[in-house]
Batch of 2 targets.
Target 1
Amino acid sequence: MKLREGPASFVDGETIEVGGRRFRAKRIFVCVGSHPAVPPIPGLRDVDYLTNETLFSLDRLPESLIILGGGAIGCEMGQAFARLGTRVSIAHATSTSCRTATRRRGASSSRCSRRKGSR
Ligand SMILES: Cc1cc2nc3c(=O)[nH]c(=O)nc-3n(C[C@H](O)[C@H](O)[C@H](O)COP(=O)(O)OP(=O)(O)OC[C@H]3O[C@@H](n4cnc5c(N)ncnc54)[C@H](O)[C@@H]3O)c2cc1C
């Protein structure tokens, strides 16, 4: 396996270029990470919201924080900020958080988040 450091760009459907060198393969697997999608939540585009990419750039601890979405990452971030001293509220579309978990685990996670300081 060869490791070449640097930004890659496509030359054609079977060739990429990195640092002036070209690499060819029949198949090219793109795994360059992802960006948060901005969902069509009314009013969201009009406010200065944070995402998982900007949350960690805060230079001071916010006094309060609302997290939209109580999935795994929302719960994880909520708990982390609550433990650091921020007043955290999690808004979640269903009655239990961590929607990928089973209903029972989600309910238990909701209780756990409340104990750890999230509302
Ligand atoms: C807050 C948060 C918490 C998470 N916690 C967990 C967890 O506890 N457990 C878990 O399993 N997952 C967790 N995840 C998810 C996990 O981080 C991602 O699923 C994982 O990093 C994705 O890996 P990836 O290789 O697809 O992308 P990345 O890790 O983002 O790697 C992509 C790489 O591609 C490079 N790249 C981009 N463009 C180019 C280009 N043109 N040429 C060459 N290189 C390029 C980038 O520099 C980067 O190094 C978390 C994610 C977030 C946001």
Target 2
Amino acid sequence: MTHRSNAPRRTASRLALRIAGAAISAGCALMAWSSLAEENAITAAAKSATSIFTESEIRRILSHGPWPAPAPADPTNRVSGKREAIELGTHLFFDQRLSGSGTLSCASCHVPERNWTDNRRRGAGMAELERNTPTLSNLAAGRWYGWDGAADSLWSQSLRPIVDSRELASSPRQIAQLIRGDDQLSCRYRKAFGAQPATDDETVFVNVGKALAAFQETLTSGRTSFDHFRDALSRGAPPTSWRYSETAQRGLKLFIGKGGCTNCHAGPNFTNGEFFNTGLTKNTSDPGRQAGIQRLAKSHLNLLGAFNDDTTGTSAARTRALSPAKENFGEVKVPSLRNLMLTTPYGRDGSIDTLADVVKHYATIDPVRLHAKDGQPAMPLNLSAREQSDLVVFLESLSTFSNPWRPEEDGPCR
Ligand code: HEC
Ligand code: HEC
């Protein structure tokens, strides 16, 4: 990790540039899969007399799918995608022996029925945390984890709550002893990693994180009414067969157009994975990304360390390039907008109760130009009451009514 104390200030239209970059990469992804048949479908759909969308709007809509989006295995985790590791990770996720007190597990806060959240304002284990518990759906192929991006891999993010005194309050030693001492866990460990749990506590501990990550990578949210609509558009199905309410269609038009929402909530998972401060939550003391970068730099579990299984060095490059800047203060990771109906309350600190309240906030600001310091005036969105409710209906169409995940019985390990 490089520390540049006098890093050149990336001011001016830094946000505008980052947003443009995200839009370009979304555009490139779009080009890659859009076939000739789809091109024809787009033109036909746009020309249809009842279509409220232009050709360029349809292209934007298609960039939010297909769903589920394919996710490649994680090169930093050698057991990513391996069935035996997923099984071990599933058992560990629900095992209360992962906590110092023996009374809490990952699932105490990331509850499956609640779409892997707790529906509390802020997470609480041994003590209350500062931030809202995020969902664990659709995390595969992410770049940074945690609201502040303090982890650069899903496996290192999964180790943090085990040792945090406010969460599971355990230790690498206790975890390693648990794995070595339990027949079933050590059998599953052997199958996942091809060796007995080592005598070195740290190695066993890190592998526990990698098994937990292998499990979490399998968690994907279900298909929604938006996904069915999007696929109908890509097939060129006539508007009369869309089965997507006109209210949701109007909300979608705002989302990809005037609202500018798709600049940050981009792609199939409705996030570009980057960090911004939209002033949504009034918690102005949260340093967010700025402290996250510092914590990541200090961690011996980051991708620059010895536990990264990617020997090519490619995956570590992003971490190496980081340096904290003043502008990062208060920024948090853009959350996915999928399955929000299951994850109230909203915002990094859970201070917003409803989707209507989130949209009301955006109605009075200029989310895209909020931080562009290039002298251009910000233009608040000034959304009317009807526009706001259209947006809410659209956001609801990105959600299912329940988490499709169900436990699988895998039998005892022999
Ligand atoms: C006490 C409640 C609590 C427990 C227990 C807990 N978490 Fe979390 N989890 C949180 C909160 C709160 C955050 C957000 C932390 C932050 O960004 O500051 C989080 C963040 C995460 C993230 C990052 C998600 C993202 O979008 O980047 C992952 C992954 C995760 N937890 C996995 C786990 C695993 C695996 C366990 C068990 C080993 C676990 N958590 C235990 C509350 C909890
Ligand atoms: C500049 C990037 C950016 C733009 C543009 C943007 N958002 Fe966000 N959005 C964020 C960030 C960052 C958060 C998290 C803020 C926080 O918790 O402090 C967020 C949070 C949200 C949430 C709450 C999700 C949750 O799980 O807590 C919703 C809903 C949302 N945005 C919808 C929208 C809509 C609708 C628009 C367009 C009117 C929009 N966003 C435009 C970056 C953006």
